[in-house]
Amino acid sequence: MKKIVLACGSGIATSTAVAQKVSALLNDNGYEGQYEIVQCAISEAKDACADADLLIATTVAPNGLECPYVSGVPFLTGVGRPAAEKEVLDIIAG
């Protein structure tokens, strides 16, 4: 089971929107039931990432992360989304 941490300023608004898009991406690519998404505030991201496979954040990621990071902004704006989706899929596949 892959653990994906989705972080935004408060852990509620934009991370929820990104969570829906990332779930759809993963399900459409055959990963349904093989991952869990945990939402948190960016201030909690470093601790949440200690046992995670990926952090997707809609704000600047904290220093000292122990998991790969992908910007969540492309999932909100659409700009650069194909590249961000590829990054997510590559990390989850690895």
From TrEMBL:
Top-rank lineage group of the source organism: Bacteria
One GO MF term attached to the UniProt entry: protein-N(PI)-phosphohistidine-sugar phosphotransferase activity
InterPro entries: PTS_EIIB-like_sf, PTS_EIIB_2, PTS_EIIB_2/3
Annotated ranges, domain PTS EIIB type-2: 2-94
Transferase among keywords: yes
Tagged with keyword Zinc: no
Keywords: Transferase
GO terms of biological process kind: phosphoenolpyruvate-dependent sugar phosphotransferase system
PROSITE patterns hit by this protein: PTS_EIIB_TYPE_2
Protein name: PTS galactitol transporter subunit IIB
Organism: Enorma shizhengliae
